[in-house]
Amino acid sequence: MLPTYSSMGNLKFKWLWGPQIFHSLQLRTPNSSATASRAGQILPCLEATVPPALTSGLRATSPADLARRHRSIHPPLLLGFISSAGFQPAEAPHPSTAAARAVARAADFSFDFVPRPTSLNHWHPCDVHGGRVLVDCRRFMEEDEGKERLSSDLAVCDPLSRRYLLLPPITDDLLASVELQNQDMFNSGASFIPSADMGDETSFSVMCWMHSKTKVVVFFFSSESDHWTVGTSTSWDDLGLHEEVDSLGSCQCVYGRFYWKVNYTNKMLKLDMNTMELSTYDLPLDHEDGDIVIVESGQGNVAMFSQLGAGTPVGYYNLLQNGTKKSHEWHMKSTITLPDQYTSEFYVNGPAEGYIFLAGTQKEQDAVHSAFFSLEIKSLQIERVSRKTFPFRYALPYFGYPPCMSLEEFKDMKC
Questions:
Q1: How would residue 128 be classed by pLDDT, with cut points 50, 70 and 90?
Q2: Torsion-angle region of residue 255: left (phi > 0), alpha (psi -120 to 50) or beta?
């Protein structure tokens, strides 16, 4: 049975710290006393930021209620970027600098607290939502007769509390139900399924997609059921993608629909979560090797930021209907460039919390680092966030709520 949908068409995403997770899913934490200590430090910080009208009876309120009340007043902070190389916190003059420093001291972004499948394999972050991180470990294992099978381990964890949940594997029987064998699958990915429903904070949902030379399959995991189910599957031929699909780009969720760039083509794949229908869209010409990010543009319409190569400006496109419901056309609305002292790298990521993210390299010959920038989707305002110290492109923006070490430190965080 598929997870329940909300009225907005999204699967319910709920949070990790509710008691239902601890009891029914055996969420593990290596140091429960340390976790309790951190939780105890949050209360005075929340009291300091809640308006006086809401503080009546605050001490009698549960930690979960305090957290919900705090989030209703304060949006999550952009604290930095995470990758397999670790955490790059926001730096001055970004307003989240103090909070980012506190998180860098308190959290463990190595993910070493999550048990590894083998000593040779490491966890890699593949999605972030609400301060929690979805990590994966993909590897090929040799079987009889020299055949290889794709093994994809997934876990949900909180770098601050060191809590984690190891997700069960997608079984061979589940693959067989969509007429696939593990040996057929040569690529996969996973992401959280976000929701605007913030009322219930006791569970979460994850989507995993796998594809072979002939078809793509989408699976869902719900923490309420603690198992995977088949969402949908279809062949590349039925999608009009007759040539072999090498890989899919990063997944983006907009208006309850998921989008992927079909790498090395001018095509985009869409999954409608209401109908479970997979379909394709054409992209503008010359986007075979480009990076794209799909975003909300209002009234249920989507837009796109794209970059065709390093040093090129970022284009902003609207997707407009062209006569019929199934006929669409991209129209360039504007182009975006980084501040004068930077030239853009081939990196566009997001969206998250109303932003996309860019990277740039200083033009001066003695420049020793690149930098991450945030771009607010509504205003197109660009702001430098931090240096880019990672040796590779892939990184995820990390939003969350900082640990409150003391009342004075929390006041300095500009939450």
A1: very high
A2: left
